[in-house]
Amino acid sequence: MSEPAIVLGANQYGKAEVRLVRIDRATPRHEITDLNITSQLRGDFQAAHTEGDNANIVATDTQKNTVYALARDGVGAPEEFLLRLGRHFTGAFDAVTGGRWEAEQYTWSRILVDGEEHDHAFVRGGTETRSSVVTFDGAQATVISGLHDLAVLKSTGSEFHGFVRDRYTTLADTNDRILATSVTARWRYNRLDLDFDRTFADARRLMLEAFAQTHSLALQQSLFEMGRRVLEAHPEIDEIRFSMPNLHHFAVDLGPFGLDNPHEVFYAADRPYGLIEATVQREGAIGNHPAWDGIAGFC
Amino acid sequence: MSEPAIVLGANQYGKAEVRLVRIDRATPRHEITDLNITSQLRGDFQAAHTEGDNANIVATDTQKNTVYALARDGVGAPEEFLLRLGRHFTGAFDAVTGGRWEAEQYTWSRILVDGEEHDHAFVRGGTETRSSVVTFDGAQATVISGLHDLAVLKSTGSEFHGFVRDRYTTLADTNDRILATSVTARWRYNRLDLDFDRTFADARRLMLEAFAQTHSLALQQSLFEMGRRVLEAHPEIDEIRFSMPNLHHFAVDLGPFGLDNPHEVFYAADRPYGLIEATVQREGAIGNHPAWDGIAGFC
Amino acid sequence: MSEPAIVLGANQYGKAEVRLVRIDRATPRHEITDLNITSQLRGDFQAAHTEGDNANIVATDTQKNTVYALARDGVGAPEEFLLRLGRHFTGAFDAVTGGRWEAEQYTWSRILVDGEEHDHAFVRGGTETRSSVVTFDGAQATVISGLHDLAVLKSTGSEFHGFVRDRYTTLADTNDRILATSVTARWRYNRLDLDFDRTFADARRLMLEAFAQTHSLALQQSLFEMGRRVLEAHPEIDEIRFSMPNLHHFAVDLGPFGLDNPHEVFYAADRPYGLIEATVQREGAIGNHPAWDGIAGFC
Amino acid sequence: MSEPAIVLGANQYGKAEVRLVRIDRATPRHEITDLNITSQLRGDFQAAHTEGDNANIVATDTQKNTVYALARDGVGAPEEFLLRLGRHFTGAFDAVTGGRWEAEQYTWSRILVDGEEHDHAFVRGGTETRSSVVTFDGAQATVISGLHDLAVLKSTGSEFHGFVRDRYTTLADTNDRILATSVTARWRYNRLDLDFDRTFADARRLMLEAFAQTHSLALQQSLFEMGRRVLEAHPEIDEIRFSMPNLHHFAVDLGPFGLDNPHEVFYAADRPYGLIEATVQREGAIGNHPAWDGIAGFC
After folding, report:
1. Which of A64, A217, B47, C139 pairs as cysteine with A15 (C-beta 3.0–4.6 A)?
2. CB pairs under 8 A between B and D
3. What is the mean pLDDT of chain A?
4. Strand pairing partners for B179?
């Protein structure tokens, strides 16, 4: 028969959004780690799809249990914990030849009481979330780290002009606008022997400084500078990808009410919004590393 | 005829969620105020409902325009801006005999560049939102202020035992648990001549300190102490209402894996959750002040 | 001492969002009931707040267990199930003198296979949610039923003109606009011996028909007609409250591109939106029935 | 110098979430098309990133205007409209060498009045959303269609047993469980000359029927059968990808209350959830077609 058969292609499965909170109580000054973990296995799961035969299936419930059991020994940086998970699953089961482990981390600060940090009382930090993705292909692991929902805004120091004008163009040039975005960034490491917490903190600092300091002629320009600074300071990073909405703040026309508006009163719009996405990378870096599979778009 | 007529009861209308961002550019060190404002008018709008006669209707579009126009002169504390809106609408239109104006405020911090606060670059602060509701009944205004989504957690110092046991009770007593909640609080002022920004900051501080310092035998006890401290320090507040979910963090049973769990590994559950709601007030305060109409439940 | 004491005011507590799915398997043609239930108790809980003494506290975990245990005997209409919960809790515990039980219900339709309804395979119905609130004050119960997120739209048959014009008015009159809203409605019954499922279905039908058939000069007019029809057909309902956003659809000005736009191309805006809220009631009905406490605004 | 330069990698930009509602008023029986459109351009935008030079930049505002202007002539199937947008942008601007256009479509049904479909009054249909992605690489276009948030549930006819047991396994075998998921599916067409509306409706029908009819030994098995039926019936489709959470419904243990639970009372859990993702394809189909770039994970 000439019709090609219908077959199973790429696949993975696991337990998503395992909410793990670990309290380190070694001293009265507790430490909190708050994670949302997804574990997904890749390997020989053909029979489950075509026959309903689960002989090779590590139940997603077992994957969840394993997350909690391994956390008994401590968690550390989320990247380290995901690497432990990946080594466990690829090592323990013949049918599991790889997988993908992901974590979101939420930030907590200590509550101040009379100006002093409390030992075991915490308040949630900013709106942003730290993210980590660890992929195993056999024993080969790749780490991608990042953050999302980091909302930033400049009240001046942003221009936009000189763009193409066609039949459908109505936008006026501007030499002063609000520039606001919510940064999603992910970067791929070329090594695993790293202090992931320290690098994360430094990459975040560099991106914020670049956003603040760049006199922006296009959001693309701010984005590129943010990536450039991270790559320059961190040779352990090969590439960084950004997805940055241009969250429009329109100066309201108060003319009908007999008022001027010297860039002081703005309407913050929801939709539509600009969407700027790009990779900044070292020349010659792998353009389409498989560790990015499963990450939407540029982030 | 014996059937009672079908008539219009209480009603209000307006424009909801007017997103106003105001930049104060008086000096190179810009200030940002980021608000989400809802304006609702009360008065004689019978004919619009029964006849479609809009002669008394101030269009919701006009209410939006007015928000932006009045912001031209500056905004200040959200409570002050809402009072201005209320005075304007109740003063300008005979048919408008009252109304309700509400604001949510989002926090921005300055980006640090080389350790210095930047003049015009900002990063969003915490997850919490400040709220204000101003009600006018004729010329009589009442201000309710508050906050929501203030997430806090204690990793110890919380017990729960001694509760009722019946046929359906399976919960064990505990002398050590995580206590986590997301505080919604609103308090009613008995005066208008206040520094609303200062009082807000102090009420927030007092609630955080009370949560941290209270050794809790019930979330109700923490709640009451949070309210008590605010009322003791602020005679300008007559009552404070709380809605506080008990966000359960269950210690995972690692026994099946041959492991103990000395209160270190927790599962953070989504639903269901406990929900604790109460008013703390001065004795003799009005129990059901009409300014609370339109606020769900306890908050 | 002259300072009034700081005391506990109104309060309630319980378990929120207990997700209950019940399958009726009496015949091979299964029935599904999908509910999200909140149970809140009112009574003498002073000591828990001021002393951390839980002697009167029915644990929220016990409330959850009770929901599932009572569901063993079947659920029926959500209003009937909430009445059973209320009778149980107010009857079983001296300290519990009342309470509030709430349910959201999600709709499922049967999957069609070869045009026939399947016995035990379902697909989620519309975006709307049915709601019920039962309040007990002692043995006295009141039922409020309703729905939310019922999105409706008319592509013509809506006008808006003749409104007030002042300094801040820029909106033009229109004789043809899109009218779109997402209906939230709640109605209060004056009896308990009802077929709540049948009444709900009929009220929903009447509101949809009224929205469709009313040539609208104001969204207020559509709202009032929707309420009037429900009250006329259902003497067991004393009042109905609506909260209806005016979800603006703006005709796009295609003039700059040399095109007309005969009310065909629209931009659907997110924020701000109009917000129309009103009660339609029988003359002489109680204006502010305590069963509405805990329901935000008009709904 | 030995350090590789830091350069711009893959990038795209555009306007996201342009909310377009088109009313076809050719006859009194109006038709409504409700879309959320994202336009993203690819090409030579190097200078914008590195110099802030916008000479090649078609403003995102212009992209939005173009969406509305082209809708003046009618929209048709979302796939057709996206193809028109892609042809326009790649044809009109030398610097634009490709791009990605995406649409979500929301469903509206006619309101029934006295059992008759109304001409111009509509109510939102189900919770699901239809999706389309059109990618241009030069003049070469690829269409991917799909849907998401299609919630389905079987109350019996699902088993799960025979899986791997290790140290961390606690899950019991089951021969009868609820199987519930929210289907995200996307399929890639190998042709463009299609009736996209008809194919979409048929693929949706086939997936629902397969879910209902498959006696499931694993969610993977249901998934594969859903894909198989679509590919068998539609040679114009080369592959279909699924992301299907296993939305756990746990039978509640009523034993502590002296009650049995014959698979009738369930707790619907939120997190964690199983997550099953797979591709079903024709043997020999391109495994990693570039049109999938920018689509998260399997969908």
Report:
1. A64
2. 11
3. 96
4. B154
